[in-house]
Design a protein that fits this description.
This protein is about 5% helix and about 40% strand. The chain is mainly beta and about 350 residues long. The chain has a domain at about 195-325: Beta-galactosidase, Chain A, domain 5. The strands form 7 sheets. Strands 11-12-13-14-27-23-22-17-20 form a 9-stranded antiparallel sheet, with no helix packed on it.
Length: about 350
């Protein structure tokens, strides 16, 4: 049986201070409705049915542009880069030269620096079953070397959202892109994610040195720790245990080492909400996945349904190269050289159990 084509519609979402328009794209299949905007190449809505057939939006976000522009520290739904996650002191060695990026997270760089890709209005174009966003990040952008041309393609087929990221540079640089959607499978206005069950296809994680969340460099086994999600585990079951690593992040905000060979699309995570029956399966070509349990949401943000996003209203599953990778030689490299292509695929599959 031939697959049903995904409907793609475009509208104006808002206007930035410089007068440029932000476009919204709605992708609709038989199972999922995905809404994207060009500002941050971000996910602003993701609707799917529960086991009773009731539709809910399972991605935290806003209905207007202004909160996205003003709320740059939470990255709701955004595609973040040039380097996702953290670099210690925003400093690293590249081809025997010291590179200094902008600093925006205490003394460190987070998700691309002071003006990361989440704050750019990308060029959008409708493609088969989806949208492709394009951005040129110039040489020296936030301190990173090289003119970097980035393409992010979102496609939707039936119950699968596929994100394909590619990039090329004219100088050796770093690239590490990820999507920062906050999920709540019972609905974005339903409360916290503490009763949802998580499975991570990982036997190890990268502990952090302090509250700054910079990895120590150790690759530690999850066995016997609150970081063992090899079997389905309720997120709230161990999140408040007296554990130094949990204390540093006020909960989970760590990188797990995904089993299998990086570069091959393989299972990374499964999230299940017993109340609604919704399931999210994550597959990726990336070596790591950051599970962030929404610890710094504090109720000041008001979402699209009028609900306040309190602590742990949503969680992120960010597929990625490891945090602070350029400063740990044994971590998978995030370097991109001229003539090479950065290429990464992550899929979200939505099901019911």
């Amino acid at each position: 049986m031939e697959k049903q084509r995904t409907q793609v519609t475009r509208e104006v979402f808002g206007t930035l201070a410089d007068g440029s328009q932000v476009s919204s794209y709605t992708l609709k299949s038989s199972a999922v409705e995905l809404r994207l905007i060009s500002y941050g190449a971000r996910v602003v809505g993701l609707k799917t049915a529960d086991r009773e057939g009731r539709i809910a939006d399972v991605a935290l976000g806003y209905d207007a542009l202004t909160p996205y522009v003003e709320g740059t520290n939470v990255y709701l739904g955004a595609m973040v880069g040039r380097f996702a996650n953290r670099i210690a002191k925003g400093r690293f060695e590249l081809e025997e030269k010291t590179v200094q990026t902008t600093i925006n997270n205490g003394p460190n760089m987070l998700h691309g620096g002071q003006e990361g890709f989440d704050q750019r209005n990308w060029e959008g174009a409708v493609v088969t079953d989806g949208v492709e966003f394009t951005l040129l990040s110039p040489d020296g952008d936030q301190g990173f070397p090289g003119d970097l041309l980035v393409r992010i393609r979102y496609t939707l087929q039936d119950d699968v959202v596929r994100m394909t990221c590619s990039a090329r540079s004219d100088r050796t640089t770093l690239v590490n892109l990820t999507n920062h959607t906050y999920f709540n499978l019972d609905g974005e206005a339903s409360g916290t994610i503490l009763e949802e069950d998580l499975t991570l296809e990982a036997d190890a994680y990268t502990p952090v040195a302090s509250e700054e969340a910079i990895p120590t460099g150790e690759i530690a086994a999850v066995e016997g720790t609150p970081f063992d999600f090899r079997r389905p585990t309720r997120i709230g079951a161990r999140i408040s245990e007296p554990n130094e690593q949990l204390g540093y992040g006020r909960g989970y905000d760590h990188n797990w080492v995904v089993r299998g060979r990086a570069g091959e699309l393989r299972p990374a995570a499964k999230l299940y909400a017993p109340v609604s029956g919704r399931v999210l399966r994550v597959e990726t070509t990336e070596p790591g996945i950051q599970f962030y349990s929404g610890n710094f949401l504090d109720g000041t943000l008001v979402g699209k349904s009028g609900a306040r996003y309190v602590q742990r209203s949503g969680l992120c599953l960010e597929t990625q190269r490891f945090p602070d990778a350029p400063n740990h030689a044994h971590f998978p490299s995030a370097e991109l050289k001229p003539g090479e292509e950065y290429f990464s695929v992550t899929t979200w599959t939505f099901q019911i159990e």
